[in-house]
What we know:
single chain; mainly beta; four-stranded antiparallel sheet; four-stranded mixed sheet; 14 strands; 46% strand; flat; disordered N terminus
Amino acid sequence: HLAAKFIVPREDVHITRRAMSDSKGRFRLTGIGAGRVLWRGEKDAFAPRSGVLAVMTDVDGFRVRFDRGRIVQFLVRSGKTVIEKATITAPNEQKAETDARGMAQLAAVPEEPFTAVVRRDGYLRENVSVALKTDKPVVVDLKRAAAIRAHVVRASDGLAAGPGSVEVSFDGVTDIVPF
């Protein structure tokens, strides 16, 4: 089934409508006002599609065409050391985890260029641009992350403060870490 998400922008407000297609791929959304509609269609094992549709009156015959997308391989390392269990996330929220060789594969990613996010505990997050036609693995070189260890205590008596979180900001990135 096709899961189609329609977003109708109105200044600061976004109205989101969803519809699931029937067994023949048909769906119907009613009560959509005239204007510009941003749409996104998703289907398992296919690359997601999105676009803009100008709605003036009823729209009939609108088609969302899916293709299998493409397969992109990644090699994740830090210097010459391959990184196992790194997570790679595509814009369509598809995820893959690297194996003992540092290799991972995303299937059904968009045909157009995109940015993947690569994460692994102990390393800095890396945003990686993936080109239009890539036949070779995308090589990602992760940098080791520094750790901040601290004891969170009450100012009044120096005893443990109990459960909570600490916000750490650096270079425009903010992480909130539970303690």
